[in-house]
Amino acid sequence: MLIYEKIYYTLYRMVLKLADMFSTINDTPRFEAVLILSFLTTVNFITIIGLIGTFIGESLFSNKKIYVMLALSPIFGFNFLLIFYKNRYKKIEVNLSPTWKNEKSKNILITILYIIFTIVFFCLSVEYIKNHALK
Questions:
Q1: Closest residue by Cα to residue 132 from 33, 67, 59
Q2: pLDDT per position as a tens digit, 26-39
Q3: How many CB atoms lie within 10 A of CB 100?
Q4: At the N or C end, where does the chain have fewer CB atoms within 10 A?
């Protein structure tokens, strides 16, 4: 869970920096950080489900996109619960704030590698699925 918390906190700090840089009124940096993290997690789940469907030779996705969105919405809910339930974000921020500056490069690297992994994993999986199309 510690890597998850580091990724959340790094995204949170990045959102705060962007808000300062573009001088916008930003009341929801925590919410935005969780949305970004949830989106990345959802892309990974979609990729894994697509690959599993390709391996078993049958599509696991419904033809109706609304059903897919409803099936994947618990990922967003779960991420929001992990961060916001009982103000857990305060504990994460208090625990990581003093040590984050000492490990700033490492934390940013972990977050960027997670984002790159998600993008590369998705792109390679799409290419694999296209080459092994379901009949």
A1: 59
A2: 557 888 889 999 99
A3: 17
A4: C
